[in-house]
Write a structure and sequence with these properties.
The chain contains 4 helices and no strands. With 125 residues, it is mainly alpha-helical. The protein starts with a helix and ends in a 10-residue tail after the last helix.
Length: 125
C-alpha cells in the first residue's frame, strides 16, 4: 500500500500544469504592459489628491450650508413662536453656534483658495 502512494506522488511531481504556467505568463505580461502606460488623467498623485480634496470639501460645504439653513430656520421659528423664555434663549444660543460653525467652514475654503497659493513652493508670492 505504501508503494502505491509513493508511486502516485512521484507521478504527480513530474506533471507540469501548463494551464497555470500560461495563465501566470499572461497575467505578468498584462501587468507589465499596464505599468508601462503613463496615466494621462493626473500627472502626479498629489494633483489627483488635491482634486479629490477640493471635490469632497465642496460637497461638505454644500451639505453643511443646507443643514445650517434648515437648523437656523427651526431655531428662528422656535425663537419667534415660543412663549417660554428658556426656549428663546436656547434657540438664540443654537443660532449663534450655527452661524459661527458655518462661517468657520466657509473660512477654511477662503484660506485654501486665496491664502495657500502664497505659500506654494515654500516662497512668498
Amino acid at each position: 500500500m505504501k508503494n502505491k502512494n509513493t508511486a502516485v506522488k512521484r507521478k504527480s511531481d513530474r506533471h507540469m500544469d501548463w494551464g497555470r504556467i500560461l495563465f501566470t505568463l499572461f497575467v505578468m505580461t498584462c501587468l507589465f504592459s499596464v505599468m508601462a502606460f503613463r496615466t494621462f488623467a493626473a500627472p502626479t498623485v498629489w494633483d489627483k489628491a488635491t482634486e479629490i480634496m477640493k471635490d469632497v470639501y465642496n460637497q461638505v460645504l454644500a451639505i453643511s450650508t443646507i443643514a445650517a439653513i434648515v437648523t437656523a430656520s427651526i431655531a428662528l421659528l422656535l425663537m419667534n413662536f415660543s412663549k417660554s423664555g428658556r426656549t428663546v434663549d436656547e434657540s438664540r444660543a443654537w443660532l449663534k453656534r450655527i452661524i459661527i460653525t458655518w462661517a468657520i467652514l466657509n473660512g477654511l475654503g477662503f484660506i485654501m483658495a486665496y491664502i495657500t497659493p502664497f505659500f506654494s513652493g515654500g516662497k512668498w508670492g
